[in-house]
Design brief:
Elements (H helix, E strand, L loop, with lengths): L4 H26 L2 H5 L4 H21 L5 E3 L12 H11 L3 H9 L13 E9 L1 H6 L4 E8 L2 E9 L6 E6 L5 E3 L9 E2 L13 E3 L8 H11 L6 E2 L4 H7 L5 E4 L14 H9 L3 E3 L20 E4 L4 H10 L2
Parallel strand pairs: 1-2, 8-9, 8-10
Antiparallel strand pairs: 2-3, 3-4, 4-5, 5-6, 6-7, 10-12, 11-12
Helix pairs in contact: 1-3, 3-4, 3-5, 4-5, 7-10, 8-9
């Protein structure tokens, strides 16, 4: 039976809220000055796996016929020397170890291997792992893909403006919801109405490995942007554009042939589009989610409030 995206919003929102709560608990319990000083990434590993287990279990219950394209798999957790990590993940997920491992592995679907399956979920349990460890921006990103199109997106941002959630379907405006509780009514959000590129606010990745920041600087200069870029982790950059906190987000490939993962963009893209903005790749083409686990037919991403999107694309194409 076909799934109407609007009917799945309550389950998707509940799943992301539960995962965000897990992430916050792990952050409070396991992230400390000592872990940061040692470069210990185990807290984010626990949160990544536990959040995926929680979301996957919820989706299996709500939509047992729909597979999940997740970022994580449980192979490493099953190793004999990972008993302590496995126990921590299961404890934070609130599940038995066996159920936790099975739930995580529910995210192993690859659309390229089963082209007949046209509807599936995609999840990034923690987008912005370094932001998570620093206590800054990270996101839980869940989306539904149908016939290669993103038709539902839920983006949980635990540290953005005190914590919020954005939810949208392809037929509805993006709603801002509280990160906790049961409220599904929300507040419609719109992109900025700023028409002046010189006054535009640019957001880009904190990590230079994620986006070509030197090229971004040239593009900003070509557009006449006066303010320096704001650098934040994760799909919270999409959220900033959707909320009108920023006007422009650039993610520029750092090496030839690099292709983005679908879970890194699906929910955020829909949030921006349904808030009135525009999202394309760096050539101006729509993002194509029909190719599998990667955006194989696209290079990079440009997300804007839409008022001068074409000018941004031209500047990107003219700048190397």
């Amino acid at each position: 039976m076909p799934h109407a995206p609007a009917d799945l919003v309550p389950a998707a929102v509940a799943a992301v809220r539960a995962a965000a709560a897990v992430c916050r608990t792990v952050q409070a319990d396991l992230v400390s000055a000592a872990t940061l000083e040692k470069g210990d990434k185990s807290p984010v590993t626990v949160a990544d796996f536990a959040a995926q287990a929680v979301v996957a279990a919820a989706l299996k219950s709500a939509t047992p016929d729909l597979p999940l394209v997740g970022e994580e798999d449980a192979a490493a957790l099953r190793a004999d020397d990972q008993a302590e990590l496995r126990a921590k993940v299961a404890a934070h997920a609130g599940q038995s170890e066996a159920d936790t491992l099975d739930a995580i592995d529910h995210g192993g679907f690859d659309p390229a291997t089963d082209p007949a399956q046209k509807t599936y979920w995609t999840l990034d349990p923690i987008d912005g792992t370094k932001g998570f460890l620093r206590g800054q921006q990270y996101a839980v990103a869940l989306a539904l893909i149908q016939d290669g199109k993103v038709t539902l997106g839920v983006l949980g941002c635990p540290n953005l403006e005190g914590g919020l959630l954005l939810a949208a379907t392809s037929d509805t405006q993006t709603l801002r919801l509280p990160l906790e509780g049961d409220d599904l009514s929300g507040t419609p959000t719109r992109v900025s109405g700023n028409p002046d590129p010189a006054a535009a606010r640019l957001v880009e990745s904190v990590e230079s490995a994620h986006s070509d920041q030197s090229r971004s600087a040239k593009i900003a200069a070509a557009l006449g942007l006066a303010a320096p870029p704001v650098r934040i982790d994760s799909q919270c950059k999409y959220a900033a554009v959707a909320l009108g906190l920023a006007d422009l987000y650039l993610r520029l490939p750092t090496r030839p042939g690099y292709r983005e993962k679908i879970w890194d963009h699906a929910a955020g893209m829909l949030a921006v589009q349904q808030a009135g903005g525009t999202v394309t790749d760096t050539t101006g083409k729509p993002l194509d989610f029909a190719a599998g686990r990667q955006l194989d037919h696209n290079a990079g991403v440009i997300a804007t409030h839409g008022h001068f999107h074409d000018r941004v694309v031209e500047a990107v194409q003219d700048t190397s």
